[in-house]
Design goal:
It comes from Bionectria ochroleuca. The chain is α+β, with helices and mostly antiparallel strands. It has two domains: 111 residues, Phosphorylase Kinase, domain 1 (2-Layer Sandwich), CATH 3.30.200.20; 218 residues, Aminoglycoside 3'-phosphotransferase, Chain: A, domain 2 (Alpha-Beta Complex), CATH 3.90.1200.10. Helices cover 38% and strands 19% of the residues. It contains nine helices and 14 strands. The strands form five sheets. It has a five-stranded antiparallel sheet. β4 and β5 form a beta hairpin. It is globular.
């Protein structure tokens, strides 16, 4: 386990019986007889459970997530739409979302998925990168725009998925939103604000504008959006990966690899190499490492906002932003093509 992800991986494990709300029961198939619902798995933001029921003496299981609070309903709606499109693209590598809604208790909200048995540890690298590459090649956004048709959430953080004509515009808007949420969570930092200005106005254009100028073009592909090691597992009985807990959008395929950089280990490096053996790096290739660093900064900003009591996340965020500002802020005019 990477030292960086220790905090995120310390999720609460759920146990014990769960009393099912009638509105959840209403979403089961006709003739279903509930046999039990018990805590199953672990999560940072919601309660998770295995729901068992019988139809004509045949046992079936669903995976249930229950969220509490005012953000719960838009969170399950965003996850449902994210996983619906991902499952349409790679059904072998993702659970099918079945239903979502609010409980009789208006503070509680739910989402149901097909149930999958998982094994311990991460999936083999060849199978994992093949699944991600399939996700990025099956669908293209026919409108050619970047964004998503609904607000999605990374943890409890609402993403700015406003439709944009360029990847640069979309990424700037997303970073502006996350930096605002990070400041809301931790309080203002004069140093971070000072770094953010050239980062947003100079570094991002310098690294992303060349992707869409001088005859180059990015096709927006469906992105999982939060594909860190806590949101992928190996399916029991096979080597196939299972990707879940998505915060999807249509974007640049290389963004998906941003969560590999904080791992900083051989597994992550082999994943990136294996992925790009299937899907080549975007031009200009010489900017690839800096782009990967740029995309990882959004991960650092998310974590800094989600875990405001952990100082290392803001520290890492500022260090990485400063590194790119030092390298690229002065030559940003080259991005104008």
């Amino acid at each position: 386990m990477s030292e960086y992800f220790q905090q995120q991986s310390n999720a609460k494990t759920h146990y014990g019986d769960i009393d099912l709300d009638e509105r959840i029961i209403d979403r089961l198939p006709q003739g279903a007889v509930v046999k039990g619902c018990r805590g199953h798995g672990a999560s940072n933001w919601n309660r998770t459970a295995r729901l068992d029921f019988e139809i004509d003496d045949q046992l079936h299981s669903y995976f249930l997530k229950i969220l509490t609070g005012p953000k719960g309903r838009p969170m399950v709606h965003g996850e449902y739409e994210s996983m619906r499109l991902i499952h349409e693209s790679v059904p072998k590598f993702s659970p099918m979302p079945l239903a979502w809604g609010s409980c009789i208790d208006p503070t509680q909200h739910f989402i149901l998925f097909t149930f999958h048995k998982l094994s311990q540890g991460l999936p083999p690298i060849p199978q994992f990168v093949n699944a991600v590459a399939q996700l990025h090649t099956v669908k293209r956004n026919p409108s050619g725009k970047f964004g998503f048709h609904i607000t999605t959430y990374n943890g409890t953080l609402a993403q700015d998925n406003t439709w944009c004509d360029t990847w640069e515009e979309f990424y700037v808007k997303g970073m502006e939103r996350i930096l605002e949420l990070e400041e809301d969570a931790r309080g203002p930092s004069r140093e971070l604000r000072k770094i953010s200005a050239p980062f947003l106005s100079k570094v991002i254009p310098r690294l992303l504008r060349p992707l869409e100028t001088q005859g180059r073009k990015i096709d927006p592909v469906l992105i999982h959006g939060d594909l860190w090691i806590g949101n992928v597992s190996a399916q029991a009985g096979s080597c196939d990966p299972l990707m879940f807990d998505a915060s999807a959008f249509w974007g640049h395929n290389e963004y998906e690899l941003s969560t590999m950089r904080p791992l900083n280990n051989e597994w992550a490096r082999e994943c990136m190499e294996g992925y790009h053996a299937l899907i080549p790096k975007s031009e200009p290739i010489e900017d690839w490492d800096a782009r990967n660093s740029l995309y990882a900064i959004r991960t650092y900003a998310h974590d800094s906002a989600l875990y405001p009591d952990e100082p290392k996340f803001r520290r890492k965020l500022m260090e990485e932003m400063q590194n790119l500002v030092a390298q690229f802020a002065e030559d940003h005019n080259e991005a104008r093509g």
